[in-house]
Each structure stands twice: as structure tokens, then as C-alpha cells.
Amino acid sequence: MKLKDVVDSYMRKVSGIEMHCDRCLKTERWGSSVVLMVVDAAFTSIGLNYFTAVVPKVEEFNNKFVSSGRIKNLNDLAAADTDELKGIWRNERSWRAAKDIASHLSSVKDNDKDALRVWAENADLKNRGKDPIGEINGVGINTFQYLRMMGGVDTVMPDKIVKRVINEILRKAGFEGVSNDIEFVEKAEEIALECGYKPIELCWMTWMVQPEGKMMRMKKYSQLLSKI
After folding, report:
1. Among 133, 150, 167, which residue terminates a domain?
2. Each residue's pLDDT tens digit in the chain (228 positions)?
């Protein structure tokens, strides 16, 4: 099969994903709250199920700290008491990462959205280890890429699901898979653009075509996507 035909067959299963990806690229996820985007990224970094573990806890954090006005911006998150935050999410490494990310971003620009977008635009994947956020303990390549995507960069995360699905697509089209993370990101971006999609759409597709119970995630969580 031609590469585009294979990609199209996957993308047809996630009709509507474009709207979610566009909001992500406009830094409008989670009601445009960069605090919630950072917390989402920090929780996601430890590898638990996104929809059943991470999203409910980000919502709980939102209700207790953000909606109540206790944490209004990244500065507030950076200064928040870790022990109190652990009442929502017990993993201390996640909170250290979230607070360190918030601390750096709040030094970039006063406005949270501008700060994330300016950082993302200038962050270099190949020199991630020298980046002030890339060198934070708990921020691996996937968290780095996830934050860049929410900051407006059209790219992909090289996590195990994304790699498995994209490499499956490559093999179905008669090509070899790519294992190296940086090379994989470059290849996935190339495939997306060649086939008429945004890299971020390919990335989200790989997550949303996964089955959860008896349903595909895209069907199961289509209503939830519009909120997050």
C-alpha cells in the first residue's frame, strides 16, 4: 500500500481530532490555563493511563487550586506547598518537575501563555539537555515534546504508543521502522506533511485509536476532548 493510503486509513478513525489539535497548537487546552497544561505534562510523565488517571487528577487540582483562585498563574504554582499538592497526586517527582517548569517559564514572560509559547518556539529538541526545562529532573524527551506541542510547535512525542503505531504504518507501506527518538520525531513529521496532515494530528491519532475496554478511545472520550 502507498504510505498516504495507510495513513488515511488510520486518520479516518479519528474524525474530529483536528479541532483538538488546533486548540493544542493555540495553547488553548484546559480552558487556556497554562498552569493546568504544566500539571498535565508533569502527571503524564510517569506513564499512567492518561484518561483514567491523569485527567481526573488534573480536574481535581483545577477544582481545589485553580478555580478557587489559590493558584492563579505559574508564579503561584512555583511557590505552592508541595505537601499540600501531594493531597491531590502523591508522586513528589511530578510536583518537583511541575514547580521547576513553572519557575522557569514564569521567568521568560509575565504572561503564562506568552511564556510557554516563547519557550516552545526557541526550544531545540536536539539540544534538549542544555535547555533549562529539558534539564529538569523528571522532564524526559516526551514531556519536553508534549510541552512544546502545547506551546504551539507542530511536532510529535516519541512515546511507546506513538512509535508503535507510526512504525506499524511505515512497515505496512513497505518501509523500515525508526527506533532512535530524534530520528523518529523527524520521520513522523515528514510522514505527516507528506500525507497532508499536521504532525500533531498523527501523534494524537496514535493515542486515540487505542482500544479501551470494548471501545476505541476516540469514541469513548470524544466529549471529554473538547474540555481538555
Report:
1. 150
2. 899 999 999 999 999 999 999 999 999 999 999 999 999 999 999 999 999 999 999 999 999 999 999 999 999 999 999 999 999 999 999 999 999 999 999 999 999 999 999 999 999 999 999 999 999 999 999 999 999 999 999 999 999 999 999 999 999 999 999 999 999 999 999 999 999 999 999 999 999 999 999 999 999 999 999 999
Whether 40 and 144 share a structural domain:
yes
One domain, residues 72 and 170: no
Distance CA 147, CA 120 (A): 7
Q: Are residues 7 and 74 in the same domain?
A: no
Strands 215-216 and 211-212: antiparallel
**Of residues 176, 144, 181, the one with CA closest to residue 162:** 181
> Is the separation of the CB atoms in 182 and 125 below 8 Å?
yes
Let me know the angle formed at the C-alpha of 212 by 32 and 218, rounded to the nearest 5 degrees: 45
Distances (CA, A) of 40 to 9, 13, 48, 60, 226: 30, 25, 12, 12, 15
- pTM of full prediction above 0.90: yes
